[in-house]
Every structure is written in structure tokens, then in C-alpha cells.
Amino acid sequence: MNEKRLVVALFGVVVAVVLGALAYRFVAAFTVSVFLYYSTRRYYRSLARFRLPPRIRAAVVMSSLAVPLVLLISYAAILLVVEARQFVTDTALVSAAAADVAWFAAIDRIPEFTARGVYEAYRSGDLEPFVEFATANAAFLTTVVSEFVLNLFIVVIATYYLLVDGDRINAWLLRFDDDAIVREYLEAVDDELESVLFGNLLNVVAISLIAIGTFSAYNAVVPAAVRVPYPALAGALTGIASLVPVVGMKVVYVPLTVATALPVVLAGSIPQLGYVVGFFLVAVVVVDTIPDLVLRPLLSGDETHVGLLMLAYTIGPVVLGFYGLFFAPIALVVGLTFANTALPRLLGVDDRQRTFSDPGPEGTVEPTPADGDRAEETTADPG
């Protein structure tokens, strides 16, 4: 029997190593999937009141994430293309780049970014330099595109099935229980991850709405020359940037302030810079400081310290790259929950023992077992 168990254990180790290696290859995609799962699980469960099947609810949740994201990316891409073409036209970038970039020398003009414009450019041969450049760098471009599509596919599939089968996975893990320690720990981790990551999603939505409203209100009361460009897009990006505490939102509204002030300075309208300074102060106070002081503590989880969470969001991307933004808070919650729940049990700490910082129901300190023994001895010995 022991030999059979050893063989099964060795086989299990081999399988675990293989699966671990495959998971590590796509650790970024799986990390984002877990982040999205816990961010949207409360929304997924709330749809049960409509008596929708689990697969339909998961599809609704994924669509709710995908549609706004696709619209935001499409809107940003269109604005980028339009502004880039305007910049190229105004600065004669084609003629300047032709002197330094060989494949750019054959381009006379940038085609219009419309279906008809691209078709006419293709017929006239204006796209030939772009085609040659793409051909010369086909391997690199193919690798980048295929990696992105593959990771996006993994994120979508993994998040979808985590939503559909998350309860089954949780029940399977709870089978490996030892004196209720595993159950207590896993349930605590599960609840805290949902609280923290769902809170982050609410924080992004709330700050996006606050930023869009603030930028739009500013544009409504100032002259046209000092209006913020694309307030809806800027507000949405500000909300997304709020995932990174301390510096996140500044990455959006500081360049936005510079972009608003630059045309005013070039035009010599120095007095109008007062409006830009006012915009910057409003962004700092209304968009950045107040939500950071009010919303973030409310939406940062039940047990996880806000300061540690901010450090995790800040240090994670520095150490691990892009996916560290999602991996670091998950690892922090898992580690802190272990220290708060499983570790005291493993070290033999009695939950019934209270300290002076944990008073009883009437505000008094409950007696320790030793005190209780003394009380019983006193009662038993009337003399």
C-alpha cells in the first residue's frame, strides 16, 4: 500500500511540475484572470436574481467588461490617428523624416485614414514603403500580435470559467481540510480578495465618473482656448490610472495640464494661464486627493492595510513588470490572510484568549483558562 501511495505521489508531483511550468509561461494572463474574476464575481452573483443560467451570467459580465473597453480603446485610437495625421500635416514630418529614415524617403504624403483613402493609396503605390517595412519586420510584428492575441484569449477563457465553475473549484480545495484550518484560511482569502479587488473596480468607476464630471464642468465655464481636450477620454484614463496609488492619476492630469497650457503659452495669452492653474488645483483636490482620502480606505478590503496595499500596487509593476500591478495585491492578501488566520492556529494560539485590546461583550477582559481554573479552585474550597 505504501509503495502504491509513493507511486501516486510521485506521479502527482510530476503532473504538478508540468502544470506549474505551463502556468508560469502564461503567469501574466492567469494573474489578470484571477484579478478580473474577483473584481466581477459580486456582479456575477447579483445577476442570479434574474434567474439566468451561470453561463449566461458569465457572458453578460464578460460583455460588460469587453464592450466599454473596446469602445474606450477604439475612441482613443481614432483620436490618436486624427491627431497624429494633423500633427504630421502641420509639422511636415514626412519630409523631415525622409532625410533620416530610408524607407520613409519614398513617401510623398500620408494617406487619409478612411477606407477610400487607404484603397486609393494602395492603388497609387503610396503604401509600398509601409508594406516593405512590415515585410522586413514581419517576424517581430507577428510575435507581438500573436502573443497579445494568445494572452487575451487565455484571459477571456480563464475568467469566464472561473466565474462559471469557481464554486466547484472552491469545494474541491476544501476537501483537503485538516482540523478546519484549510477551510478557515481559504474562506478568509476568498472573501478578502473579493473585497479588495471588487473595491478596486468600484474605485476605478467612481474616479472615472468624478474626473469626467470635473473636466466637463471645467470646460463649461472657461474660454475655448483653455479647455481640456477630450474630457471623457481623459476622465476614463484617469480612473484606470487610479489603480496605481500615489502617482497613478498624476500620469494623466499632469500631462493634460501641460497640453492645455502649451497652446496658451505659444499664443502669448499669459493671463489665461490662470484658468489652467485653476484646472490643475481642481484636479489635485477634487479628482486626486479627496477620492484618495475618502474612497480608497472604504474600498480597500476588510482586513488588508491600506498602506501595504498602496505599496503592493507601487512595487509590483517595478519588480514583476506589467502583471505585477495585478499579482502584487493578490500575493499581499494571500500572505496577510495566512498570517491572520492559519499561522496562529498552526502555532497553537487559542482564539478564546483575549488581550486588553480585544474586550469581551461587556467591555471587560475575559479570563484566561488559568484564571478560570483559579476561580473553580476557589469555589471548590470554601475554606
UniProtKB/TrEMBL annotation:
Membrane-topology annotation of the record: Multi-pass membrane protein
Cellular localisation: Membrane
InterPro entries noted in UniProt: AI-2E-like
Annotated region (Disordered), positions in chain: 354-383
A single GO cellular-component term on record: membrane
Transmembrane stretches, start-end: 6-38, 59-81, 138-163, 201-221, 233-253, 273-294, 306-339
Domain of life: Archaea
Keywords from the named record: Membrane, Transmembrane, Transmembrane helix
Name of a matching Pfam family: AI-2E_transport
Family, as annotated: Belongs to the autoinducer-2 exporter (AI-2E) (TC 2.A.86) family.
Name of this chain's protein: AI-2E family transporter
